[in-house]
Automatic annotation (TrEMBL):
<protein>
    <recommendedName>
        <fullName>Biogenesis of lysosome-related organelles complex 1 subunit KXD1</fullName>
    </recommendedName>
</protein>
<keyword id="KW-0967">Endosome</keyword>
<comment type="function">
    <text>Component of the biogenesis of lysosome-related organelles complex-1 (BLOC-1) involved in endosomal cargo sorting.</text>
</comment>
<dbReference type="InterPro" id="IPR051390">
    <property type="entry name" value="BLOC-1_subunit_KXD1"/>
</dbReference>
<dbReference type="GO" id="GO:0007032">
    <property type="term" value="P:endosome organization"/>
</dbReference>
<keyword id="KW-0813">Transport</keyword>
<keyword id="KW-0175">Coiled coil</keyword>
<dbReference type="InterPro" id="IPR019371">
    <property type="entry name" value="KxDL_dom"/>
</dbReference>
<dbReference type="GO" id="GO:0031083">
    <property type="term" value="C:BLOC-1 complex"/>
</dbReference>
<feature type="domain" description="KxDL">
    <location>
        <begin position="37"/>
        <end position="122"/>
    </location>
</feature>
<comment type="similarity">
    <text>Belongs to the KXD1 family.</text>
</comment>
<dbReference type="GO" id="GO:0005768">
    <property type="term" value="C:endosome"/>
</dbReference>
<dbReference type="GO" id="GO:0032880">
    <property type="term" value="P:regulation of protein localization"/>
</dbReference>
<dbReference type="Pfam" id="PF10241">
    <property type="entry name" value="KxDL"/>
</dbReference>
Length: 139
């Protein structure tokens, strides 16, 4: 079994037939340049500070998100409670309005009946009420 080495297949600088005009000069190592650039851009202290700041910021954002979610849930619950109270208030208001209208009708009926059936007593009572109102206004 024959083992082939890449060394034999890859041309070396000595194997190339380059003239002085074709000499590229110092060879530019791309991988080394990229590595050095990354190394400089990701300086360990700067990177750890940035990572720490990012972690703190993320924690604050998560905390505020959780707070907002809790507030939203509380407000939804509160809204349901207030809607229930409002519905009860509307029903109570309608009932009170109905009761007031019924009372007004009864008062009007009694007023007209007393006026016709007992005109003298009605007018005397009315004068007493008006005098009482005038005395209260003067005090």
């Amino acid at each position: 079994m024959k083992i082939c080495f890449l060394d034999n297949d890859i041309p070396q600088a000595s194997n190339l037939l380059l003239t002085d005009a074709q000499d590229p000069g110092p060879i530019f190592d791309v991988s080394r340049y990229i590595f050095d650039s990354l190394k400089q851009s990701i300086d360990s202290t700067d990177f750890s500070e940035a990572l720490s700041l990012q972690t703190k910021t993320s924690a604050i954002i998560n905390s505020k998100s959780l707070e907002l979610k809790q507030h939203i849930d509380e407000m939804k619950t509160r809204l349901v409670q207030l809607q229930g109270k409002f519905e009860n208030g509307v029903a109570t208001s309608r009932r009170i309005k109905h009761d007031l209208e019924t009372s007004r009708k009864n008062i009007n009926y009694l007023d007209s009946a007393l006026r016709v059936d007992f005109p003298i007593e009605f007018n005397q009572a009315r004068e007493k009420i008006l005098e009482r109102k005038l005395n209260e206004d003067n005090d």
